[in-house]
Specification:
Blueprint (H helix, E strand, L loop, with lengths): L1 E3 L2 E3 L10 H4 L3 H4 L2 E4 L21 E2 L5 E2 L1 H7 L2 E8 L2 E7 L8 E3 L3 H15 L9 H4 L13 H5 L17 H8 L5 H6 L3 H7 L16 H14 L3 H13 L5 E4 L12 E4 H12 L3 E2 L2 E2 L3 H9 L3 H5 L11 E3 L2 E3 L7 E5 L3 E6 L4 E7 L8 H23 L1
Antiparallel strand pairs: 1-2, 3-9, 4-5, 6-7, 6-17, 8-10, 9-10, 11-12, 13-14, 14-15, 15-16, 16-17
Helix pairs in contact: 4-10, 4-11, 7-9
């Protein structure tokens, strides 16, 4: 049992409000994690280029206008940063927290692992057109047995599975339990995440026909990376992304009781390192002189989206004309913005036209956003990117 301020935080209550507001800052002390080493001595500083808060006049949630402080308060933000051309134009932390603190980023992890996959593709270790079972023989005969890596990357795998975050007795509840996220009693008897992944039933649709946002895809993708590169996911992210990125701090990824990493949502890091990763993507996979993620992979995120699979999905009306590619969400707006998003309000928003990267860490009391909440935050990010660019380019 861990005491944080005036509350006890443990692996049973860490996801629930109000405990989560403190727990998300110290997941590496609550759950089992693997270290993702950085190289502080080689960290690349983020230079300040501040702009006044008054320059950010934003839409209020219920109409009218509001400042950035109101937006952060209504969306349960814990930390927030805006980079313009790689420099910090705005940075904020909830009281008692600073740039040194690590926060879990939930499904933003998917985009980190998707970009790692791109590096391994560039190295010739993974072929997106090959079957998942070519890399992970343990998945022969499962719903993933005849799935291509490309279909896992783009979330077009057909599974009898629902992301029922609030139903602890559902197949999703059993899946989450297998990851080590549901308390010491259940975690001690779990068969482990890999066995649960292999047991998920196949869905009715043909693989590759419909976009369906299902977290097991990303955990399978992490497993593919480990098998293809013959190394733990934590080491791969450290050696191929975190150290070359010039990250200023170590990160972590949660693991189940057998050491399998939660590639779908277990990554934790500082806000600035989160923004550094976004800035690397904005710069075609480069961070200063370091070529980290192949430019062709970054280009493919926007160029390769399948709008037909998106339009058949239940997300089509959340983001009309949008898409999903290589574990990143696409707005397909005029600025070609794309983003990573996590269940409790974690974001990396990249606007290539305005040369802006936004990173946000949050602790929404109830994890899943409504469609209105999702669309509201996206609208604000677009307004921030536009306002920031206009301020510095005037």
């Amino acid at each position: 049992m861990l005491s944080a301020y005036d509350m006890d935080i443990n692996s049973t209550n860490w996801l629930s409000a109000p405990t989560n507001r403190q727990a998300f800052w110290q997941v590496d002390r609550v759950l089992s994690v693997a270290r993702v080493a950085g190289d502080p001595g080689a960290a690349i500083p983020l230079e300040p280029k501040p702009m006044p808060k008054a320059a950010l006049t934003l839409s209020a949630k219920n109409g009218g206008s509001a400042g950035i402080d109101a937006f952060l308060d209504t969306t349960h933000a814990d930390a927030f940063i805006v980079l313009h051309k790689g420099k910090i134009s705005h940075e904020w932390y909830t009281p008692g927290r600073s740039s040194n603190d690590k926060h879990i980023i939930f499904s933003v992890t998917k985009s980190v692992v998707g970009s790692l996959t791109g590096i391994l593709v560039g190295q010739g270790r993974i072929d997106p057109e090959k079957l998942v079972s070519h890399y992970v023989p343990e998945l022969h005969g499962s719903a993933f047995g005849d799935v291509r890596v490309r279909e896992v990357l783009d979330m077009t795998v057909s599974l009898e599975f629902e992301e029922a975050y609030l139903d602890l007795n559902s197949i999703f509840g059993r899946y989450r339990q297998s990851t080590g996220w549901s308390g010491p009693d259940s975690d001690a008897t779990s068969p482990g995440m890999h066995k649960v992944l292999a047991s998920i039933p196949r869905g009715r649709d043909a693989h590759g026909s419909v976009f369906s946002y299902l977290s097991p895809n990303s955990d399978v993708l992490g497993w593919v990376c480990e098998k293809a590169a013959e190394a733990p996911l934590s080491s791969l992210i450290s050696d191929l992304i975190w150290k070359p990125l010039g990250a200023e701090s170590d990160a972590y990824i949660t693991v189940d009781r057998f050491g399998a990493p939660r590639a779908a949502g277990g990554f934790g890091c500082t806000l600035r390192d989160m923004a550094r990763f976004g800035e690397c993507m904005r710069n075609d996979g480069r961070r200063h002189d370091n070529k980290i993620i192949p430019k062709a992979w970054v280009d493919d995120i926007a160029a390769g989206v399948n709008h037909e699979t998106w339009e058949r999905s239940d997300m089509a009306d959340w983001m009309p004309g949008g898409g999903y590619r290589n574990q990143w969400w696409l707005t397909n707006n005029a600025n070609h913005a794309y983003f990573a998003a996590g269940i409790y309000g974690q974001w990396i928003y990249i606007d290539p036209v305005h040369e802006v990267v936004i990173a946000k860490q949050s602790a929404r009391p109830v994890g899943p956003a409504t469609r209105e909440e999702f669309q509201y935050e996206l609208r604000i990010f677009q307004e921030i990117a536009s306002s920031t660019s206009a301020y510095f380019e005037r």
